[in-house]
Structure formats: structure tokens, C-alpha cells
Amino acid sequence: MSTPATLLRRLAAGTVLALLTVTATAPSLHPVEAQSPAASGAALIAESDMRRWLSTLASDAMQGRGAFTEGYGLAAAYVAAELEAMGATPLGDHGGYLRTVTRGEYRVTRRSSLRITAAGKTQTFAQGDHVSFAPLAGSARRLSFDAIEFAGYGLPPVGEPPPDYTGKLVVLLPGTPADLRGNWPYPPAFATGAGRAAAIADAGAAGVIVLGAVPPTATGSDGGPPAVGLTTVLRTDRPRAPVITADDEVFALLFGGTDAFERLRTRAQRGEPLDAQPLTGIDVVVDIDHRYEVVRLERTHNVVAMVPGRDPELRERYVAFGAHLDHVGAVTGPSLPGRVNVPIEQDPIWNGADDNASGSTALLAIARALLEGPRPRRSTLFVWHAAEEEGLLGSRAFVDDPPVPLEAIEAQINIDMIGRNRDDDASEARTVYVIGADRISTDLHNRLVEVNGRLGEPVTLDFHYNDPDDPESFYTRSDHYNYAARGVPAVFFFTGTHRDYHANTDSADRILYPKLLRITRYIYEAGFAVADGEPLRRDFRGPRAGRGFRGTLPSD
Q1: Helix segments in 282-402, DSSP class H
Q2: Residue 75 shares a structural domain with residue 153
Q3: Whole-angstrom Cα distance, residue 45 to residue 137?
Q4: CATH code assigned at 150
């Protein structure tokens, strides 16, 4: 799992998507089908297999599985070989199981421009001239807009699903509504206008303009704008929604004059409500012309497989299981990958047995149980994400360019650290922390609870870390977050940190294998029920199951 420091770096770099989930009402929950695969499917998950897989993934031979290292490559190849032996369907590159993730470092020259026609007059603004384009704007193209929507503060409305801005140019003002000051219900990235703009672009808008200061751009050595740096795992050669920061002069044009815009800005500064509305009588043309010069490329791989569902009509719908395969590596120089619990001369490798060989092992066990036992109606995806420890990079790349349509993924089940007890507390032998299940789909939360209630020996579902005020912000620190940010109902299963978290003592001999087996079997049953049952409705009601919560949630 990513550390809080990684989270802060990711937020500062603007690479985290913000989750568009808020409160709304939903119809009553469809019942879960009575069929349970427990008798045959869960019984196929064996402790001996899990010991073998985990001890291999957490061995010194894997060198701590640093994402862009030989050790990670060995781990990815090992998982791929196990999947091939099982007979899982490959969904990687060239008919294999490995799907390339490229982290590129670029020098970007921005020659893009914005043209506004209003009241019979046309003005064009180039980069640095009252507008600034985000460095990642995708391939060269021209976008023409006559559907322009003012989104107020750019925050999802309370009590409704997120607005559909597909095909629209969205305009927003930064700021905080007065009724939310001191009571912030949104992810940290929404604290800035730029974060909201990026989230709206990722959610399907064709372009976004946000008010902000635009310092003049100096002239480069060739007489054009200077290059800026960009590091990303996203492709630069595909169409992307441009995110544009624009100043007062541009916003005055968009709102029909300086006086109208100043009145609106004054309301925003006071925190007064800003009603969403179309902006009429204007046309906007955006010419994207970014040049990307490669400075450096690093490649790693997600490992991706699929188990076909049994229902021909639902076989192209998916429930995705995921876990990050990488860890933080080994000592290779003066800097250390993590905490040192024993001298590095004694142990220079951060084996990452719990973080996250445990989750990676659970995925192998669940995949094999679905291949050899009963199958749900929908197909199941399995993704071992790369570079989670470096900012959720593998899952970010996956949702941006998935091997199946993202809209066909009905839920994502993320497993990150399920092999120990929180703080090594023996009383938590049956406890698993459930994070995020209620935020997008009340049905998902209730399905997980109902499945557990049917087990002969249920686990203890604890929602402590689902609290929106969780100071650890675990909800934003693992791979499910990138799926949820695209509107996919997601849940994160986790058993808590301990003294060996991100330390060179997180080794296979410290895993509680009976607990790992117990939690994996529960996740298998829960995932089967989601893949086999009625579709999950997305009601976007936000986090409600927090510290001390037990049971199901009202769905009406």
C-alpha cells in the first residue's frame, strides 16, 4: 500500500483523480441469489497453495519487487506462468498475460490556443496569453464547442449522481461554498480548482476551463513557448480532454462582460451558491498542438487475466479483482526503500510479504477456484497492478486504457494487505477492514454484508477506515481509488498496518496463513455473489458506514 508521503506527492503532482461521489437516494436493493458456491468453490482455496505462492513472491529472489526492476519482472513472470498453468484467459499484450505500463518523462512544448467568438467578435489566446494548457493534452486536433456548461464550483451536487458532461466544454470557478467550510466531504484533490477540473475531464467532459492566475509565458530558444516537464504513465498520442486555466479577461468573455463576471466572482468569494447553467451566445474553438519530446521511458507490466462467465448474455460484463504486485525494492544506494527494523547488513531486501504478496496470492487462489469450480454469470477480471507504491501508476494506466470497456466493469474488488492483524492484535484474527463499498453503490455494501451473514463461520467486517475523516486516508491510497474515480463501484479489503509495514521485516514467516485463508475465502464468496447476482445500482450516496457501524444500509 502507498504511504501517506506517496499520497501527498501524488496530490501535489495532480496525478490523483478525484472521486465524484455524493449523496442521493436509491431504489430498494435487489435480493442476492440464493445460490452459494461455498460448498465447492471456496473449498478449492487451500492454505498449502497460498503458502507456496506467497513464499515465492516474498522471497529474496524477487528483490523486493520494485516496480521498474528486474525483481518485479521476475514476480510478474511467475504470476503469468501460474495463470497459464491454470488455464486463465490472457488479456495482456500480444496474447500474453503482461500488459505494458510505460512511465514516460517528456519535455512538452505547448503551442495550443483558445478562440472565443462572442457578440460578433473573435479573440484568440495562445499559451501564456491569458490561458495555460495542462502539459498532458493528448494528440493534435481541433475541438469546436457550442455546448458550454457553467458548473459553478465544479463540485458534484449533493443528493444527485454526478452530472453528465459528455461532449461538453465545462467552465468552473474555484472556491468553497460557505456551507462546506469546515465540513469538507470531498477527496483532498477537490480542494483546488485544478483538481476539480482534472476530475471532470476524466469523468467524460470534452474540455474544462477553470479560473486561475496565468503568468506570461517566456519565449523559448526557438522563439516559441518554452518546454515544460511532464512525467506520466498515460499515453500522449491519444485524444484527451484539455484542461485550461484562464484568467479574468477570458472569463469576462465567457460570461458576456466584465460586470457580469465580477458579480459572479463576488458571489463565489462569499461562498454563495452558484447555479449550474449553460453559457449561450458564444462559440469556443480549442486547437491542441502539444509537442512531446521523450526524455526517458521506463517500462513495467500489469498482469491481466480473465475467467469467462457462464451466462452468454452476461459474459461481456465483468467484476474485476485486483491487487498490487509491486513493493518497494531493496537497498541499491545510500537511500533506503522504507523503515529499517533490523540492520540492512542483515536484511537489505524489503520482501513485502503482507504488502502485498498477501493480496497477490489471494488473487491467484480466487482465480483458480473460479477456473476449477462453479462460475458466476458474469466474467471475472484479474489484475495484478504494477507501481502502486509509486503513486497507483499501474491502476491509473489500466483504467485509462483497459483491455475491456471500462463501462462493462460493474465492480472492482481490491485486496491490499490481508495477511496480518492490525498492530499484531490477536483479537483481530477474524477481522477485515472494508473501505469504500458504500460510496458509489449501496448495493455493493449490502451485498458484502449479506454474503458474510450466510457463512457458517463469518468474518468480522469492520468499517473503521471507511470514515471520511480517517486521518490515514486509506481510501485514497490503493488501486481501487482509480476505478472509483471513473465511477466504478469499488471496495478495498485490508487487515491493517503493523510494526513490519514498509519495513525490511515484512517477511513470509510472519504471515498468519489461517487468517489469509479465511479472508480470501470470504472475498471469493463476496465477489462470486457480485458477479452472479443482480446488477449493482450506482446511487452515489457517499460514505456512511464508518467507525462502529454494523450491518446493511438503507437503500431507499
Answers
A1: 359-372, 393-400
A2: no
A3: 46
A4: 3.50.30.30
